[in-house]
Design a protein that fits this description.
Blueprint (H helix, E strand, L loop, with lengths): L1 H20 L6 H6 L9 E14 L5 E8 L5 E6 L11 E15 L5 E15 L2
Parallel strand pairs: 3-5
Antiparallel strand pairs: 1-2, 1-4, 2-3, 4-5
Amino acid sequence: MWNAILIIGFLGMIVFAIMGIADKSISPKHLNKNASPYFNKMVTFAGKVINVEESKMDNGETFSLIHILDDNMQSYEILMLKSSGDLLQDDTARFWGVPAGPSAFSNVSGGTTNVQLFVGAHVEKITN
């Protein structure tokens, strides 16, 4: 039992550290122009959750894919090797992650949605 408490406390400290190292000077415009200078930077953005999916991998780990759209119509896709917790479609959320470059997918209107792809470290639901 004490081991579990220590592990949970340690993981909480890691999440807190991740939040503190995010470079808030990096904007979506920087990433849209050229994401490669920022591949080693932790960033954070927030917006409305458009879609969230989770699945179990063969090793039992949870894989999450989250699509977030901000108020400026910037689209973000976040890949995480952990659960997204209680996050659901239409929630507002903030994520922390490392940019992995531009990506795109077919949308329901028959067009293409351009997104910035991130390797996610953490995501939190924002409650109003």
